[in-house]
TrEMBL record, chains A, B:
Transmembrane segments: none annotated. Keywords: DNA-binding, Transcription, Transcription regulation. InterPro entries: Homeodomain-like_sf, HTH_TetR, Tet_transcr_reg_TetR-rel_C_sf, TetR_C. One of its GO terms (molecular function) is DNA binding. Residues 16-76 form the HTH tetR-type domain. This is Transcriptional regulator. It comes from the Bacteria. Residues 39-58 bind DNA.
Amino acid sequence: MRSQSPVQIPRGRPRTFDTEAAVERAMNVFWSRGYHATALPDLLRATKLSRGSLYAAFGDKHSLFLRALDRYIADAIDRMDVEFAPEREPVDGLRAYFAGYVERNSGANGRRGCLLVATAMELAGRDAEVDRRIGSFFRAMEARLVDALSRAKAAGRLADGVEPASAARIIVCFVEGMRVVGKTAPARMISQATVDALLDRFIR
Amino acid sequence: MRSQSPVQIPRGRPRTFDTEAAVERAMNVFWSRGYHATALPDLLRATKLSRGSLYAAFGDKHSLFLRALDRYIADAIDRMDVEFAPEREPVDGLRAYFAGYVERNSGANGRRGCLLVATAMELAGRDAEVDRRIGSFFRAMEARLVDALSRAKAAGRLADGVEPASAARIIVCFVEGMRVVGKTAPARMISQATVDALLDRFIR
DNA sequence: CCAATTTAAGACCATTCGGTCTATATATCT
DNA sequence: AGATATATAGACCGAATGGTCTTAAATTGG
């Protein structure tokens, strides 16, 4: 039985910057500008890293981008897992989920857009690593919606003729479309009324 | 009264290439690659123009892009004006409109994406000319949907409680979201079933 | 102290970027 | 013929690109 961790403790100066914080700062840059429009100096400024440190820690721009995208996706999944938690009323979960999109779509948040949607449009179909991530995110979102809608149906809260599977696919398209239309920064009231009207078609 | 056209007839060699055809070829490149990822050589290859001719005819890359975007938008509006023609049954128009999105979203068409959505995500909020075009397109689309839905309502074809205004906004988000999800190239059958399920919530 | 390692700063690299310009051929007018 | 205009091909430009490397300071463990 090993009592010692097998990882070697390096002897030199330890890393002094927070890798995850750097990924988050990089994510914010890619989020605001997109992949191609983000230049190295933008990332260096945001992460406050030197070129050498950034390349040593992350390899290259593309690898750093994938780390940032993974972080963005993980945050989105975590949010959904709170909203659609099993102990919560599924209809309440749906409302919270939509409320999040209203929030993210209003004013400056909306104008900033969505890293995932922007990446899908900019890189999907030309970058296999991106394809995998985008595809699995949409599947994960759809699965959580199917689950919540199924529970709502079991509780008799779904309107007549609503199928969880097709309703989930409708909702995925709808919320991703909100992120596109959100680039024109619609008023929060309008977004709220729109999601309410959609929910009204599904919920009893 | 003038019997002559006021435009000067130039005396030199006339233009030998088709400007609109060049715009269309450029549009296809921007459509496939996005604005930033499209380099001058890509445009020269596609238009079969020399650098000199391209710059003389269109000014610069950005101006050519706007011409291409205008062309793309005009095509989309023309399509809607056919689908939602006043002499047509509005419900049939809605079905044709959705059928177009199913078509554009399937397989290679879907993977290619949508120039308008890609442009919204890539440039909106950072390019005032783009902002104007994206905003006015969404308004034009919404207005046509409101009109068709209002006529459907007057004909008693709308489900109970469906408001043309909010339904139109829902549909705008939904179809633009289809273009995002379409980057993962969903099966045509799935897209068709999804739009059918949505229409089923609105139409009697 | 010494070896090991990370740090920041920035020089440096080849390549590509969007854009201009020159040279030359071609086509149409008076 | 001569003037005018457009075409192509490609040289050329400065700036910016992503990426590598060197130097020297800093910080740890042995």
